[in-house]
Amino acid sequence: xxxxxxxxxLNVWENCxxxxxxxxxxxxxxxxxSVHDLSGVASLSIGQRDARLLQLREWxxxxxxxxxxxxxxxxxxxxxxxxxxxxxxxxxxxxxxTIFDVTIETYHISFRxxxxxxxxHLKQSSSQTPARELLNRCITSIRRENxxxxxxxLPVNVIEKINDLMNKEDPQADIMMLLTCPSxxxxxxSGFDILSYFWSEINSWAKHLLQEIFILAKFxxxxxxxxxxxxxxxxxxxxxxxxx
Length: 244
Fold this sequence. Notes:
The protein is about 50% helix and about 20% strand. The protein is an alpha+beta fold.
């Protein structure tokens, strides 16, 4: 995987403005991986997908993340910063098709980690128990005393242990932050979603870039391609001249 050029990132932004965030994230990773087929990216575990997004975000916008939250008790607005490295919980690995084998009590279970393909399926499903359906999709086989067992017959304590194992093998999939309100001292956990965070930054960046292109094109008569080829540092200098 590599960094994206401004043109590549702008193209992804334009093409994905009306698409679901999850699909947009796959396009970002596919472009950065120089692949056209999204199926391989969609088969990455959720943690491996998010680890790639976190790495790409660091390359594009730097190592610091600015966050905002509201206290659930007094509604105080809280702002804080994190280093990307503090949120990096697993290395970038292929993460496609890995099968884990485990024995829990008398059950011999094989499972894989959830992927974007699984989440796409759940969005189209009318299941009343999506978490259980997701687990059922990820269990590839269950045997008990040489008999085949279906996932729906697993007891609750076994299901909980499988979920714990999945979280352990794919920690990047669910990042939680412990926050403390400076006003009322309430503590709570808040999830960090790299998909929405990164896309919000890309959206702001793209609109700002288009404003720069408009000003320089109007003043100098350059094309969009010519302006993007100049690069951000020289563009900034030209903009300072225009505004002087």
